[in-house]
Amino acid sequence: MSTLKEVAVGKTVKVKKLTGDGPVKRRIMDMGITKGVEVYVRKVAPLGDPIEVTVRGYELSLRKADAEMIEVE
């Protein structure tokens, strides 16, 4: 099991599960990141925060803490 935070730049992965609860999970889901959706990792800042991804054709920036809550395969 790995999280979005561990995915290398340039890879596309499929979301398996969202961990976390309440407003944090809601915020991730509001970005269109839900189970089964593909996420492409575009860029990771030098210190690992933020992680820039493309989801459903939209370019998004995720905080490292949020990326840890997204399990991928």
Give your account of this protein's structure:
The protein is an alpha+beta fold. It has a single domain, classed as Roll (SH3 type barrels). The chain contains 2 helices and 6 strands; from the N terminus they run E-E-H-E-E-E-H-E. It has a 6-stranded antiparallel β-sheet. Strand 3 and strand 4 form a beta hairpin. 22% of the residues are buried. The mean pLDDT is 94. Keywords: Iron. It comes from Eubacterium album.
Kindly summarize this structure in a few lines.
The protein is built from two helices and six strands; from the N terminus they run ββαβββαβ.
Output the structural class: alpha+beta
CATH class: Mainly Beta
Spatial arrangement of strands, main beta sheet: 1-6-2-3-4-5
In CATH terms, what is the fold-level topology? SH3 type barrels
Could you tell me the strand content as a percent range?
35-45%
End-to-end gap:
7 Å
Biggest sheet statistics: 6 strands, antiparallel
Radius of gyration using CA atoms only: 11 Å
The total number of structural domains is 1
Average the pLDDT over all residues and give the rounded result: 94
Low-confidence stretches: none
The CATH homologous superfamily name equals Ferrous iron transport protein A (FeoA)
Order of helices and strands: EEHEEEHE
Helical segment count: 2
Secondary structure: number of strands: 6
Coarse shape: globular
What is the quaternary state of this protein?
single chain
What is the architecture at the second tier of CATH? Roll
In helices, the fraction of residues equals 10-25%
Protein name: Ferrous iron transport protein A
Keywords: Iron
Organism: Eubacterium album
Domain Ferrous iron transporter FeoA-like: 2-73
